[in-house]
Amino acid sequence: MKPLLSLVVPCFNEEETIPIFYREICSVEPKLDARIEFCFVDDGSRDRTLNILKELRKTDPRVHYISFSRNFGKEAALLAGLEMAGGDFVATMDVDLQDPPSLLPEMLSYVTDPEDPYDCVATKRSTRAGEPPIRSFFSRRFYQLINRMSDTEIMDGARDYRLMCRKMVDAIIADKEYNRFSKGIFSWVGFRTKWLSYENVERSAGQTKWSFFKLFGYAVDGILAYSTLPLTLASYAGIVLCLIALIFLVIIVVRALLFGDPVAGWPSLASIVIFIGGMELLSQGIIGLYISKIYLETKKRQNYIIKEQE
Ligand code: UDP
Ligand code: MG
Question: What does pTM read for this prediction?
Fold first, then answer.
């Protein structure tokens, strides 16, 4: 029998794009050497997303869906989708056709190759065309930074469009982190990965759910989850400042002994106090960020709550 391929598709307010996505997959399906099932995850949408999924389910038994009790974010939706997927192979993809379904047959051929199968096929964009330049700029800096700071390699331009073998999916869902950063987890679990790149595609309809600030927060989460370098840097800065302070102290004492003690230099003193105060707050802030992550992790909260499922 042909292997089963599960398509994990997170959806948040995607009433416009789901029907287009479904049609596109159906047109690609004959070229696929696999049976398919759909694993839609409605991430607490406030539009007709859930109704559309229910209608699809009525006409096509290969359609399965989970609906969250509220918006839990794409990371939670991906996890829920991976957990519900029963396929021998699982592909995660966006519903807005920015992850072209036409690539699926090629991706599947790499993991089902009888001679030399890959465990995973990942995709990245070859260009960032069509993206606001400021967003591209910050994205690039983020990837440079995180790759310098972390041992886990995170590919610039990598999308969450992937096709994975069962073993890899099991490894990913066994990772019970609360603060999930998929781009990191995919890389961290290892496995042999084939990279494909393709031109950036515009969204088929609807609007992006990511504002600049949401992306910025996502970037910070990624760094906190995969690097402890900021903590080390905070301590180094502390050591350097202590040394400088010590040197100044010696100079001041020696100067006072040799030349008496003219009261001068208040502005510079104020600057130094403010500077050190700032450094202190910054370091405490960094430590605070990590503690907040530990705090959330120790609560062992659920990653998502299912309201409905079929
Ligand atoms: N998404 C989600 N929950 C969210 C935000 C987004 O499930 O809180 C889904 C969304 O429906 C889409 C995918 O994640 O299928 C990517 O979102 P989007 O296209 O808005 O992001 P972009 O492609 O602009 O980065
Ligand atoms: Mg998109």
Answer: 0.77
